[in-house]
């Protein structure tokens, strides 16, 4: 059974993770735990409970804010005229040998769910992502993310009603 867990270096095999993007591999292997300790971001991994050390994919979350002037008109109308708090999904990656299984979709869903749960205790308007290219942008748009007005590769997903 697939499950999302907080990255635990004592349990999860970070060195064996390969998503095909060296920078994303290196982040998980070298920096994710450091960033957690420093309060920069938190990493969450997707594992199969039958092989809990094998990281199938991961994402990171951190605090962020967005200037309301960059949001779509329909979203901007109901917000104050100053930057609003948000969550940022800084990284999202799946093992290269697991592509095509829908793990990216599952990880996005886990991230949104985690943000909605946190939103019960900490105010945040949206989940923000920085797409690395147009293909990644289309991936996020498929789930309802919208591009910021002046940054076409930075997208947001409103978490409220």
Give me a quick take on this structure.
The chain is α+β, with helices and mostly antiparallel strands. The protein contains four helices and seven strands, in the order E-H-E-E-H-E-H-E-H-E-E.
Structure overview:
It contains four helices and seven strands; from the N terminus they run E-H-E-E-H-E-H-E-H-E-E. The protein has 161 residues and is an alpha+beta fold. It has a seven-stranded mixed beta sheet. It has a single domain, classed as Gcn5-related N-acetyltransferase (GNAT) (Aminopeptidase, 3-Layer(aba) Sandwich). A hairpin with a 2-residue loop joins strand 6 (146-148) and strand 7.
Summarize model confidence as the mean pLDDT.
Answer: 95
The residue ranges in which pLDDT falls below 50 over 5 or more consecutive positions are none
Specify the biggest β-sheet. Answer: 7 strands, mixed
Number of helices: 4
Number of spatially distinct domains = 1
How big a fraction of the residues is strand?
Answer: 25-35%
Overall geometric form: globular
Known CATH architecture? 3-Layer(aba) Sandwich
Q: What would you report as the Rg, rounded to the nearest angstrom?
A: 16 Å
Helix and strand element order: EHEEHEHEHEE
The CATH first-level class comes to: Alpha Beta
Write out the strand line-up for the largest beta sheet, numbering strands in chain order.
1-2-3-4-5-7-6
CATH superfamily: Gcn5-related N-acetyltransferase (GNAT)
Termini separation: 32 Å
Number of distinct beta strands: 7
- Give me the CATH fold name: Aminopeptidase
Give the fraction of residues assigned to helices. 25-40%
């Amino acid at each position: 059974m697939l499950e999302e867990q907080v990255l635990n270096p004592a349990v999860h095999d970070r060195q064996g993770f390969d998503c095909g993007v060296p920078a994303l591999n290196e982040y998980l292997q070298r920096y994710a735990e450091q960033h957690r300790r420093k309060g920069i971001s938190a990493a969450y991994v997707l594992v199969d409970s039958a092989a809990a050390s094998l990281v199938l994919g991961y994402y990171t979350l951190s605090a962020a804010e967005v200037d309301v002037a960059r949001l779509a008109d329909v979203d901007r109308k109901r917000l104050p005229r100053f930057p609003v708090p948000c969550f940022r999904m800084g990284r999202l990656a799946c093992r290269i040998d697991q592509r095509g299984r829908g793990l990216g979709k599952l990880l996005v869903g886990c991230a949104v769910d985690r943000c909605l749960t946190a939103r019960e205790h900490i105010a945040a308007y949206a989940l923000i992502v920085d797409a690395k290219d147009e293909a990644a942008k289309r991936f996020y748009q498929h789930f309802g993310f919208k591009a910021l007005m002046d940054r076409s590769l930075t997208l947001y997903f409103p978490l409220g009603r």
